[in-house]
Every structure is written in C-alpha cells, then in structure tokens.
Amino acid sequence: MFSIFSKKEKSITLNSADSFIVTEKETILKSALKQGVNFPYSCKVGGCAACKCQLVSGKVKQLTDAGYILSAEDLQNNYILACQSIPKTDVILNVDLSAAVARQITGVVFGQKKLTHDITQLDIRLEEPIRFKAGQYARITLKNFSDVSRPYSFASEPQQDASLIRFFVREVPNGKISPLVNNENLIDEPVVVEAPMGDFYLQDPSSLSPLLFIAGGSGLAPVVALLQEALVYGGNRPVTLLFGARSQKDLYYLDEIGELSKQWKSMFVFSQVLSEEPENSEWAGSRGWVGDEIKRQPKAEWEVYLCGPPAMIDQSMEQLASIGIPKSRMFADRFISEHQPLSN
Fold first, then answer.
1. How many Cβ atoms are within 10 Å of 280's Cβ, its own excluded?
2. What share of the chain is helix, strand, coil (3-state, %, to 5)?
3. Predicted TM-score of the model (pTM)
4. Which of 183, 209, 193, 185 is nearest to 150 (CA)?
5. Cβ pair 217, 250 in contact under 8 A
6. Which stretches of the chain are DSSP H helices?
7. For residue 61, which phi and psi values (nearest 5 degrees)?
8. Beta carbons within 8 Å of 13's beta carbon, 6+ residues apart
9. Helical H runs in 184-286?
10. Which residue, of 52, 89, 203, 315, is most buried by count of CB atoms within 10 Å of its CB?
11. Residue 134 DSSP code
C-alpha cells in the first residue's frame, strides 16, 4: 500500500492484506490506533493479551516479558503483544480483527447538502481517523441529543486517513435524528461516531466476477462506497447498477455515478427504475419495481449486492433465484424504518 517511507518508519502488514506505517519508537498498537486501524485491545499496557497477534515475519523489540501473559503455546507459535512491541524491521502479522470492538470517535458536522426532498448528505470530520470497509455502517449520536443513536451506512470510500466521512440520511417520519439532519442547520454540531459495524462488503475486491448492485432510496450510500472501492482495484469488473426510486424527484447522485462510470475499464450499466412516476411525464426510462428490471438485463454469473427497503430486497432476490442466481452469491443489507441495517 505504501511505496515510499523513511528508514525510521516500518511497514506493518496485517493478514497479508491491509498495511500501515509505524514511526520510530511507537508500538504497533499505538500506530495502528492512530491510523484508524480497528485493532483489538483493552488495557494497552501488556496486562490482558487482548492485542495478541502472531508474528509471521520480521523482528520486534518487546518492552516487557510477554511470558507472564501469553501461554506457552502462544509463545511457541510466535505470538506477541502489539501494545508492547516496537518493530525493528518491516513486519507481517496475523491478527483476529473480528475480536476488535467498534470504537467511539468524536467529531463535528462540516457539511450538509440536500440530495432530494427527503434525503440529505451529511459530512462529518472526525478528531481521529477510523478504518472501515466499504459497505459497513456506523452509529451516529448528536451530542446535543445524546439519548438517541442511529445507524447509517458509509457513503464515503475507505481511506488510509479516513477522518472525513459521509452518509446519506433519509428522513423518517417521527424520527429522532433524521428530521434534524434533513431540516435543521447542524454545521459544527458535535457528534459521536461508533464504528465500524456490519458485514456487508465486497467478498473479494480483487475478483473479476461481474457485479450487480440493486439499491433503493438511501440504500445507494453503501453502493457508492462499494463502487469506489471496486474502482481502487482497477474497475475491471463488469458492473450493472439498478437504482429504484418512486419518481424523478427521488433520484440523486446521478452525476457522481456518471463520473465513476467514465473511469471504469469494463462495462458499466446504470439504470434507474421508477415505481410511481406519473404516466404522462416525460420519463423515458424504466418503470415498475426495480426487481423486475433484473430479467431485462443480459444474464451473467453475477455477484449481487442489494441494499434498501426489505420489500425491495425480497422481491429482487426472488427474481434473481428465478434466473438461477444462487443465494450464496446474494448479499443483502436491509434498511428497516429506523435505518437498522441487517445483513445476510
């Protein structure tokens, strides 16, 4: 991931995939957390073994004797404590990142942009970066309304320094947070973001299998993030994006998706499907349920990602099954009324 760094900096690679830099005299854990890596930890002082990881290659200086905490089997298998280890060389580690808990990070709202009559883009600047996967979500709390938090999917691309993050927030009638985001000026409003959460993400970003994205309403947010990540991997996978909305006034982010498609090296099909557009309007695109649009597309061995209202997802999955797409290739993020993402 990094091609140039000083001799005093060391590269840490996790699970032969993600990587970050450790500066001189910093422990692996301290640098990981500073750069938004959701590394498992608890005490930070070598007293609990929550941050234990397997040293696959490279050398470290251990600040304390890990033999008091780690088992004989752990030591034999080259386990170390990240909070007590300073790298002497570039290092490769195996670590169970699923053991890490979501982190709470404070920040402020620095941008609000109305996308439709009931969806607003919310931009947040965090006090420290956070690592997440495209497709995951966060729980957001407005500090002045601290008794309520709501989950929203990231609409921004995961980056090494992800301190600027974006969400699309649909106004829910009688909601606690979404009406504020859509109707009040929240610039400079303090927020708390708890993340990362969820298991909705590209299964293998380096795969060349064709991708089918089906989104409805604010379900476009994680799809935008997934597309941005796929582009980082070269934009070599054929993409079909079906976006379902009620009418033309509910369509948004079309120009931005158009710009993404121009950068794509493979086929990129983007279709909008309107379910309640007046019959006498000038709309020349598809009408009906977005799931019905599936059978109008050239059949392919798609890897399918669906995000939006449960009814839309269920109807789309039935259509997909009817043309032979197995459930093992369908990945869904269902948004219920308070925007609680649920994944299959």
1. 6
2. 25, 35, 45
3. 0.76
4. 193
5. yes
6. 28-34, 72-76, 178-183, 220-232, 254-262, 310-322
7. -100, 120
8. 19, 90, 91, 92, 93
9. 220-232, 254-262
10. 52
11. T
Task: Give the H or E element holding residue 272.
Answer: strand 268-274
Residue with tokens 């931005």: 256
Look-up of token digits 């752990």: 74
Tokens at 296, concatenated: 């109008």
pLDDT tens, N- to C-terminus, the chain (344 residues):
444 445 689 999 999 878 899 988 899 999 998 888 888 887 788 878 889 999 999 999 999 888 878 888 999 999 999 999 999 999 999 998 867 777 889 999 999 999 999 999 999 999 988 888 899 899 899 988 777 889 999 999 887 567 999 999 999 998 989 999 999 999 999 999 998 888 788 988 889 999 999 999 999 999 999 999 999 999 999 999 999 999 999 999 999 999 999 999 999 999 999 999 999 999 999 999 999 999 899 888 999 999 999 899 999 999 999 999 998 899 999 876 544 443 33
Burial of 112 (0-12, 13-18, 19+ CB in 10 A): middle
